[in-house]
Structure prediction request, 420 residues.
Amino acid sequence: MSQVTILVGTQWGDEGKGKWCDIFAKDADLVARFQGGNNAGHTLFVEGKKIVLHQIPSGIFHKDKKFALGPGVVLNPSQLLKEIDSVESIRGKIEPDCLLLSDKAHVITPWHIYQDGLAEEKSPVGTTKRGIGPTYSEKSSRLGLRLYDYADSKRRHEWIKNRCAFDKGFASHIENHKDEWQDFHNSAARIKDYVCHADHLVRNGIYQGDKVLLEGAQGALLDIDHGTFPYVTSSSTTVGGAIASIGFDPRKVNKIWGIGKAYLTRVGDGPFPTELKDEVGSLMGRKGKEFGATTQRPRRCGWYDAVAMSFTSKVNGLDGLLLNKLDILSDFPRLKIAMAYHHPHYGEIKDFPANPQDLSQCVPVYYECEGWQGSLDHCKSRDDLPKQARHYLSMIEEFSQTPIHAVGTGPGRDDIIMFE
Ligand code: IMP
Prediction:
């Protein structure tokens, strides 16, 4: 019996996937990240120490598991080593057979980071400037550097030599940023120990019946194909990305959970129909501590958007939603859910528009309901929740056509209510 569970973000990222990854990792044999790079960020508090993980799956503190970064990931070597160091300072040595880095994953170089900065100056998307887009671009144009080649000193230097031969800008970047490139080379020796045929190992585990958890980064609305292009990240953040990255029989997937928040946030540019630019939005941001873990940018906040959420639910084939931060909405007198959009040319629509021009002209048609007062700390089941909260959740389920499987009622691992 295969037991592959996939966790994906249903919004514009920052839904709290790390918390659920940590919870589900407890019952898994192996946890694998399938896309993205150090643009993601998850803040953990372990033994009183604050740790921000960007690339390592957040279940890493479960010592008896294996963790992998799949072929669809892009990886910043020196940043990854810093993360390994901070995790090791708490949990002890991460043995190479515990952290499996796919030899097929692509490497972010100082050049890619520089290119990301240049692109942002020319036509801003609001990226994290971590070199993610340029690295994925070079992967697609077959110019990129795979981890397999990076880990081997001879092949790494050959790759650099070839690039310098046809790209003068690349050559002068090396000349002018010697320290960054030195750091890049120095990191290879240590990273090498972790590089392996990770996809084979994950796949074999799946076929042998291991419990495997596949963890996405960012969210469906940032997906390169299905998101609000061009204000998206450069990888497939949806379930299709998990299958493509690891490469396995999709019929082995047992459960697909979509992570969301009880309201929406977005960092970076791009349309956001339910955005609140008023005091209500600022209050959500303050209560929810909505600042990016990677860039510290304040997140834009807005009402729950069931038009977008029913779309991302279908794109992912969700079994259900895990809805975080319900507690942040406590004490709001009224709550709203977008159940349709009004577009000046197309009238009322319920299908999430494909292009940003159409989306930016959409005005949400809201369902309004009463909020609830007071903390949710005492609530241990759906029935314990205030009747207004139960009603709010039922309407989300109805409008987004997706059952809610659990809610988060606080930042801690135990601040959750499972509904089944
Ligand atoms: P990039 O992934 O750095 O290229 O950025 C592209 C877009 O995705 C920008 O709008 C970023 O703010 C957004 N983005 C990337 N990673 C995350 C994340 O982990 N959470 C939220 N937004 C993200």
In short: The mean pLDDT is 95.
